[in-house]
């Protein structure tokens, strides 16, 4: 239970109030405190920003509404001795520059890579994603020998796209309408990366970014099972179907990470995803930053066109000349700010910002390891992501259900048993099952979720699992069901969107969150955005937080503590 | 075997004719070979039943290139408009229809806010579309910037976007890949208005209003300089007949009923064509207005192409989803809420964007819409010669009817026609009793009759991954194909389909400029 100890330490550290705040109870109606920087929200991006700013010597206070930190990067013990990764559940995108820059390993973060993964087919067969390239090729060849050859081309082409995007992650997007030297230089930088690809790869890149995942996969593969096996990454967390143009990029978003330098690999944070937040909080504390929990911010205070601090819901005020919001633009601009302080055009942009809940999460404590007859006991593929949609039509129909305002009746599940790889998650012999579900609407047929809806949703998910694992339901000890409504309440994710906003071209790079506001600076002086709603988006990458911190330090003319990104080639 | 310095143009559709006319004017010896017994390709007027003439497939002029109208002097070759700038009327089954006139809501059940938003919206979209419009007449550049000749035109495109001004440039870069529905939701409340615009954005494509790229197809529709859709007198055939007359006047020869079976090669150069009859015609240059798949896969043969290029051609997306309904009517049909004069405008059945989306959904699974969307014209209202006195013809584009129907069209065509007529009857009660003759052309029929692979209007989806530099396929957007002497000039090339003629005009310039790969 190492990680829990780590968290309780930083919880204690974080709740210690600075000495000058020790006003006698009753002496003042509200308390006031002064800091250099206030960060709203102790999600992984808020903590990352805070840690880099504290490292630069600023006095940083992070305000968190929950009684725990992490936002959606959280682990909680809801059933004795089981640790759930309640929302986010796997790790790959977390930038290695940040991991090293904040010495997260020293603060207890260990990413354990996992292998395997499988797509079950309705006729009782499987397509296994073996780690060994040759074995995997042979496995694909069982479905189509042409696809086995195409797999080589596919991996090569997708990895090329990954390298291109990876070089942009730790950079601030240029404003293409600006004639400032910095923006022009940045545009040229992107142009140079592009030109280096060569003519054919440039065309491929444009096509990749505009195509649907179904069409893209169709250019390589002929077997529906093979296509279905790869399609999932194109729709995770996204209110788009496999046939919607733009989903090929979403796939990339899930491929561009790495674990220990292995590009495209995924891993578990040992002890659950909360370990990421704990390590970031540890780094923050080591640099003297503070976290205040159960401190929901009611509004951002603006005076004379600049930020002066924040007011909490309990009336306390905290003053700082700089405020970073880790929340999405809807929450930040529409809830925490007074519309009179904002340009009406910005308010409209915030309203129009597309945050569409499309995912659910079910966490299950199991009394033993469930069997999957198609695989047989002890099969190493069980250690990876298990998927149950074996055709693109099934994916697309799952999306149609969402469009009509209901959860998918034949849902896409990304099912994992993290306790196979990470024994800290459940007692010996027992297991934790993490089930990500796509598609789940933020409202059911236009009304709020009811308990009956949530129960119906749980049954749908259980039925899908039981079709491939008949003994699964008998092993269930405890279930935590997250519809978008609970994801919103728990992680502060509007509509339960896991990326704080759709990852479509109109909301990517210099368009994220809106055109003209992609450089982390808010509409009033001293205010910044640092959440996943900013470039380069969500997925527990922490790059938005790091990039925002760099911009703040630049504005303060302080030495930069944020490491530069590196390019692969 | 005839004159060896000859240029053969395959297909006498509008692009083939335009290209032939320009090449002949430049002094080339041009022979146009047309499979059918009449010129025009899918832009023809033909007799449905004795005395009733209908535009077979294409039925409205949106984007006919004004430059070529002038240069080829089409009005002196007989092109006259029966009606210009048609209003668009979005029909409502129960209530009042919505009448759109240019950038203005003329009447209809929409709020004052939506009215002013509509004018702003159209003006803004036209402004953004002008960036696309400016690219139409240019030969797309190659990317890669190895040669300055290519870097310059690419820079010009960037400059065109920049010239929009900061606000519009941001908007352009934001919405270009978006689904139309998101943009409509940002702008309007009225479902009827949103439905009409959703149809405009998706007609002729395999996209729904929630598909990315539907803003692009909408902007493409607005990219012409003309104000609104026009009806040529004598139906769409009048356009291609005028083009044929212009080509002939310039010295081109047009041979009808001469279907090309294959291209003849010598080494890696095209040296002529072989007809279905076995006759060979020598040519130094062959320009094909047939779609890219037909030209490269069928007429040339993939074995003459480099594997990667052949693969790109094979993956070109060209699944047609638009069917065509042509009716001969005993009388003018009465549409709910419309007076007799309004029936001659452009009528839409797309009552809300959700309806359009539900119509689209079956196409994803290779099935046809149970509640289809329609774009209807009754050209005989403004062009009485198309039908006997007092009688009328109705021409409607119906979506979605995917080419690759899972059950096959042979067993489904009649059911689909019944469905379409039932929908029509709901908006125009009594119309079924007025039907003298009916014809429903599915994309499969269009492929068969007009030799367009997939029966697709644009010879290939008009989406960002098949747009400009990527049209028809990446690396071959300059009209010259990788085989010496072979060019494409059809809608499968930049700037795409609709009866524009610009692809033919650009291709002629590429041929004359000797542009080659």
Characterization of the model:
The complex is a heterodimer of chains A (569) and B (517). Chain A starts with a helix and ends in a 14-residue tail after the last helix. Helices cover 35% and strands 16% of the residues of chain A. By secondary structure, chain A is α/β, with parallel strands linked by helices. In chain A, the strands form seven sheets. Chain A has a five-stranded parallel beta sheet with strand order 12-3-2-16-22. A four-stranded mixed beta sheet of chain A has the order 1-15-14-13, with no helix packed on it. In chain A, a hairpin with a 2-residue loop joins strand 4 (75-79) and strand 5. The model of chain A is unreliable at 1-29 (pLDDT under 50). In chain A, helix 2 (44-55) packs parallel to helix 18 (543-555), helix 4 packs across helix 5 (145-169) and helix 12 (329-335) crosses helix 13 (344-352). Chain A is globular and about 65 Å long. Chain A is built from 18 helices and 22 strands. The longest helix of chain A is centred in the N-terminal third of the chain and has 25 residues, at 145-169. Chain A has a domain at 2-16 and 38-112 and 270-354 and 498-555: 3-Layer(bba) Sandwich (FAD/NAD(P)-binding domain). Chain B is α/β, with parallel strands linked by helices and 517 residues long. Among the domains of chain B are: 7-44 and 61-80 and 233-316 and 459-512, 3-Layer(bba) Sandwich (FAD/NAD(P)-binding domain); 124-222, no CATH class. Helices cover 35% and strands 18% of the residues of chain B. Chain B contains 16 helices and 20 strands. Chain B has helices spanning 14-25, 66-71, 112-136, 148-162, 166-175, 180-187, 191-202, 214-222, 237-249, 292-301, 307-315, 353-364, 409-427, 431-434, 443-450, 502-512, and strands spanning 7-10, 30-33, 45-49, 52-55, 81-83, 88-90, 98-101, 104-107, 231-232, 253-255, 260-266, 269-275, 280-282, 285-288, 323-329, 346-349, 373-377, 392-399, 435-441, 486-488. Chain B has an eight-stranded mixed beta sheet with strand order 8-7-6-16-17-18-15-19, with helices on both faces. In chain B, strands 10-2-1-14-20 form a five-stranded parallel beta sheet, covered by helices on one side. In chain B, a hairpin with a 2-residue loop joins strand 3 and strand 4 (52-55). Chain B is globular. The model of chain B has no long low-confidence stretch (mean pLDDT 95). Classes of the chains: A alpha/beta (569), B alpha/beta (517). Chains A and B meet through helix 7 and helix 14 of A and helix 5, helix 11 and helix 12 of B.
